[in-house]
Amino acid sequence: MNAFDESRQARKWPRLSRRSATVFAGLVAGALAPGLAGAEESPPSAVEWLARADIAREQAYAAPDPQRRAEALVSSAEMLSWAKGQVFLPGGGVASIDYETRLAEARQAVEKAGDSRDDLLDRLARLPGIDRGREGGRQKVVQRSGDPDSINIRFEGGAPAIVYARTQFPAPLRLRVRDEAGNILCNEERVRGRVLCRWRPLSRQSVVVDTITPNGGNAGAISIFTN
Fold first, then answer.
1. For 25-32, which contacts have Cβ atoms below 8 Å and span 24 or more sequence positions?
2. Which top-level group of life is the source organism from (predicted)?
3. DSSP letters for 104-141
4. Is the Cβ–Cβ distance between 50 and 90 less than 8 Å?
5. 208 in Cβ contact with 143 (< 8 Å)
């Protein structure tokens, strides 16, 4: 887990209400693999939140009681929002996070909830929107031989910005991110062509992303992912 994930989880973790914490514990206890379930002392990583959100959703639809289903779907939406800081799984795969659909499911279920309806709606209202990272959502760009080695990307402010690049063939790759004034926000190089840049713009920010193959290495096509 990276630095901004740790700081985000540290801020989010105390916000769980007593009811939310109870629902959360009831949904995931015993359902997770031992490696996940045994680490309750510290906030889970973003990838763990993804797994927990899916488990909560599955159990919600298995529950015959509309009240329990609504609470479980709201908890699932909350967990999913906490995972939004990281969209890349180990190995560089892009996690499938259909956040808007999950929020819509939760809101529909809450309409059928009983006494806790207002409380559940309030919890949903406090969740962040999907407009995080790149304006317009996640993006994948493939640079092939002869293509420009720079692309322009605009990120939302106040949320983690992530750019991940990987080469088709194992080869050194440098990933450099510059703002409009030419300031270097990130300049990372890896020998086997898997490079990740993270930062947090304070406001909306346009950047130039450069992919550089040192010494003219045979990297093949270069895939660039954003959150």
1. 27/52, 27/55, 27/56, 27/59, 27/72, 27/75, 28/52, 28/55, 28/56, 31/55, 31/59
2. Bacteria
3. HHHHHHHTT--TTHHHHHHHHHTS--S--SBTTS-EEE
4. no
5. no
Taken in order 49, 86, 71, 106, the sign of the CA dihedral is negative
Spell out the domains of the chain, with CATH numbers in brackets. Answer: 3-125 (no CATH), 139-226 (2.60.120.380)
pLDDT in tens, 10-28: 344 334 443 453 444 444 4
Q: Strand, helix or coil at 9?
A: helix
Residues in the chain: 227
Is the distance from CB of 92 to CB of 194 less than 8 angstroms?
yes
Residue in this structure with the two tokens 């995080």, named with its chain if needed: 132
Helix axes 66-82, 3-12, angle to 10 degrees: 140
Residue 23 — left, alpha, or beta (φ > 0 → left; ψ -120 to 50 → alpha)?
alpha
Cα radius of gyration rounded to whole Å, the chain: 20
pLDDT tens digits, residue range 143-182?
Answer: 888 888 899 999 887 777 888 888 888 889 999 999 999 9
pTM for the predicted model, two decimal places = 0.45
Place of tokens 């887990």: 1
Helix axis angle, 66-82 relative to 18-28, nearest 10°?
90
